[in-house]
Specification:
By secondary structure, the chain is α+β, with helices and mostly antiparallel strands. The protein has one domain: Nucleoside Triphosphate Pyrophosphohydrolase. It is built from 3 helices and 7 strands, in the order ββββαβββαα. Strands 1, 2, 3, 4, 5, 6 and 7 form a 7-stranded mixed beta sheet that branches.
Length: about 140
């Protein structure tokens, strides 16, 4: 079993940009797979799932973040091996994106625009879970 963790990363839209009460979602582009997804990655030895999620957000988006609500755990086959990815909602705090060979772009989009951009249906389900968790 491959264990991994990630986040549905969000930030509030500044009021002066017409964002009173609205949010944007960060999507990462992986050139190896030519897909758009949420930041996530494999667990390192001795690392907790929460620490892995925070590290992966920082590595893939350049953003430090604050974990919020737990989101659904996603299970699927990755190259024939079972993979389990634990997710959190996470508020972006600060940072700057620097492209790498693994992640070449980050987009910040309103949820309605992020939804069709996400490649995998499971990532759309996670977006729905974030919106439900932040609506409380």
């Amino acid at each position: 079993m491959i264990l991994a963790a990630g986040c549905v990363l969000w930030r509030p839209v500044p009021y002066e940009e017409g964002g009173a009460g609205t949010i944007e979602i960060a999507l990462v582009h992986r050139p190896k797979y030519d897909d758009w997804s949420h930041p996530k990655g494999k667990l390192k030895r001795g690392e907790t799932l929460a620490a892995c999620a925070v590290r992966e957000v920082l590595e893939e988006t350049g953003q430090s973040c604050e974990l919020g609500a737990r989101l659904p755990t996603v299970r699927y086959l990755a190259q024939g091996r079972p993979k389990e990815v634990h997710y959190w909602a996470a508020r972006a705090l600060e940072g700057t994106f620097v492209p790498t060979h693994e992640i070449d772009a980050v987009l910040w989009l309103p949820p309605a625009e992020a939804r069709p951009r996400l490649t995998q249906p499971r990532d759309r389900d996670l977006l729905d879970a974030l919106l439900a968790a932040t609506a409380r």
